[in-house]
Amino acid sequence: MSRTGTKLDAKKVNSELFTLTYGALVAQLIKDYENVEDANKQLERMGYNIGIRLIEDFLARTGSGRCYDFRDTAEKIQSGFKIFLGITPSITNWSPAGDEFSLCFETNPLTEFVELPDNCSNLKYCNILTGVLRGACEMVQMEIACWFVQDQLKNDNITELRVKFVKRLEDAIPAGED
Amino acid sequence: MKQQIIDSKVNPNATGEADDCLFEYLHAELVNYVLSKSSNTAEGEEELSRLEWMGFSVGYRIIERLTREWSRFKDELDMIKFICTDFWSSLYHKQIDNLRTNHHGVYVLQDNAFRLLDKVGTSNSKQYLKESPRLLAFTCGLLRGSLANLGIISTVTAETTTLPSCKFHVQVQKI
């Protein structure tokens, strides 16, 4: 059987499937919660659940070891974006203490085909990413805080995600061992 | 019928390929979310219509993009064949294994190793059979939405007897 149409590109289709599925999820959350703040929180929570699993994929694929410092972490997060979303955000705006940096996205596959209506101006559309980062870092004993500073969907030039190191989580010592 | 196989797993190291697992994780979260929001009905059946609806809206949009540069379909069967081959293999890495129809608007699409069920439990086990409808509701909606945008109004249900194989029943509504 031959077709004159062009072949489908599996990778592209998969990425569109992901983008559209995420869009459907956000739409559903807004409908269910009727409150943008709650939707933001739910997205973060879902991201966290994804992050704590995704880190295993990341470690298995890259075979990377522990991070020496937060700059190392930043680079690994950057490579994570490359692996999973096919984008390379730039790392900028380090704080003098070296415990805070920004990830700047020129493009973002999550926001393809997206426009925010006026009544959703407080919606952090990509808030799932903050959850993913927090969950993934927690699994490697690092507590971080993460939030959006700029957002292309809100007419900023770039999307900027701020990441702040909070503290190291200590290994819990199994009971009965000193 | 000879079919061309599009194997998207030829090169596992290619970039972008990893997008795959993101969809799987996201899908798992959708299911989680819908379950947390729904109340069980008296018969113990779960309320999965939200999941189906999300699938519908995704299917409705994605088919429009996929078929944009595609030649026109001859008839209903031609559309279903497209779903079974190109559409399915792009989304779920493999084609539908078996397509049956009574030529009166009923189609049964069988996938012997459905991607979203493939990693659930050991194969042929019945352990998670009860939970499997949760993992199929989204795809039922996806099928229904895709067909709807191709001009076929239908109802889609799924059936599993052993994991990871499943059957999707498409019942076309005649207008």
Q: What is shown here, in short?
A:
Chain A has 178 residues and is an alpha+beta fold. In chain A, 45% of the residues lie in helices and 16% in strands. Chain B has one domain (44-172): Trafficking protein particle complex subunit 3 (Muramoyl-pentapeptide Carboxypeptidase, domain 2, 2-Layer Sandwich).
Structure description:
- The complex is a heterodimer of chains A (178) and B (175).
- With 178 residues, chain A is an alpha+beta fold.
- Chain A is built from four helices and four strands; from the N terminus they run αααββαββ.
- Chain A has helices at residues 10-33, 36-62, 70-85, 127-139, and strands at residues 90-92, 100-105, 142-150, 159-168.
- In chain A, helix 1 (10-33) packs antiparallel against helix 2 and helix 2 crosses helix 4 (127-139).
- Chain A is globular and about 55 Å long.
- The termini of chain A are far apart.
- With 175 residues, chain B is of the alpha+beta class.
- Chain B has one domain: Trafficking protein particle complex subunit 3 (Muramoyl-pentapeptide Carboxypeptidase, domain 2), CATH 3.30.1380.20.
- Chain B has five helices and four strands; from the N terminus they run H-H-H-E-E-H-H-E-E.
- Chain B has helices at 19-37, 49-66, 76-92, 115-118, 132-149; strands spanning 98-101, 106-111, 154-159, 166-172.
- Chain B has a four-stranded antiparallel beta sheet with strand order 1-2-4-3, with helices on one face.
- In chain B, strand 3 (154-159) and strand 4 (166-172) form a beta hairpin.
- Classes of the chains: A alpha+beta (178), B alpha+beta (175).
- The interface between A and B is large, with 40 and 42 residues.
